[in-house]
Amino acid sequence: MEIVNFSSVIKSFPNEWVLIGNPTIKDNLVVDGVLIEHDKDKKKLAEKVKTLQENFELTILRFTGNISSKGKWLKFTPYN
Amino acid sequence: MAKIYSLQLNHPDDIILVDCLLLNHLSQLVFDTGASNTIIDYTTLLIAGIAVELKNLPTKEFETANGIITTFEIEIPKLKIFQTTFLNLKIYTVDFFEKGIGSNYEGVIGLDLMKHFDIHLNFKQQQLVVQ
């Protein structure tokens, strides 16, 4: 399993969801890791991965593009 | 002993994200004091290896900024938030993409779990301190 630099993952697979195995994380940023899978569609990625994540001590999901420049207004309160 | 986490609010649209360990998957969950319960994206559960069939699960409706959404109640084997591990934890799940949530966070930590912690937020110093 080859460890790849995360910046090269971003260049190779722009605007995609990538699942990284055993990542090195510094200051909350992924530095490198094993590229497990990638896909433009997060759900398709989940289907591809299935049980692959079991082979890793740790996995992390990242999007290689800019997702949203919108503001956020979240709340989840029970309805009735 | 207190543990200090950086808030990383660098952009006007940034929110407080906390890295949580869902089985062995490091997930970014929003620290959301406007959420009564903890809700995790269904796709994230699949990626973490939690295979769940939703159709027969109990449901719960939540009032959100996107309107009323129906979520599914599930029990997950393990979730670690800050330094605390919760086992056999009841949370809610919904397909974020279907509900039009396209951001990069994978769920929200709600007050149901926050109440287990002694947390201090210092926005000027960009710190979240867990006692």
Essential attributes:
heterodimer, A: 80 residues, alpha+beta, four-stranded antiparallel beta sheet, 19% helix, B: 131 residues, mainly beta, Cathepsin D, subunit A, domain 1, six-stranded mixed barrel, three-stranded antiparallel beta sheet, 10 strands, globular
Topology:
The complex is a heterodimer of chains A (80) and B (131).
Chain A: E1 3-5, H1 6-12, E2 17-26, E3 29-39, H2 42-49, E4 59-63, E5 77-78
Antiparallel strand pairs in A: 1-3, 2-3, 2-4
Chain B: E1 3-6, E2 17-22, E3 25-31, E4 39-41, H1 42-47, E5 59-64, E6 67-81, E7 84-94, E8 107-109, H2 111-114, E9 119-122, E10 127-130
Parallel strand pairs in B: 3-8, 4-7
Antiparallel strand pairs in B: 1-10, 2-3, 2-6, 4-8, 5-6, 6-7, 9-10
What does this molecule look like?
- With 80 residues, chain A is α+β, with helices and mostly antiparallel strands.
- Chain A has one domain.
- Chain A is built from two helices and five strands.
- In chain A, a hairpin with a 2-residue loop joins strand 2 (17-26) and strand 3.
- Chain A is globular.
- The model of chain A has no long low-confidence stretch (mean pLDDT 87).
- A six-stranded mixed β-barrel of chain B has the order 2-3-8-4-7-6. A three-stranded antiparallel beta sheet of chain B has the order 1-10-9, with no helix packed on it.
- Chain B contains two helices and ten strands; from the N terminus they run ββββαββββαββ.
- Chain B is globular and about 45 Å long.
- Chain B has a single domain, classed as Cathepsin D, subunit A, domain 1 (Beta Barrel).
- Chain B has helices at residues 42-47, 111-114, and strands at 3-6, 17-22, 25-31, 39-41, 59-64, 67-81, 84-94, 107-109, 119-122, 127-130.
- Chain B is mainly β.
- The interface between A and B is large, with 36 and 39 residues.
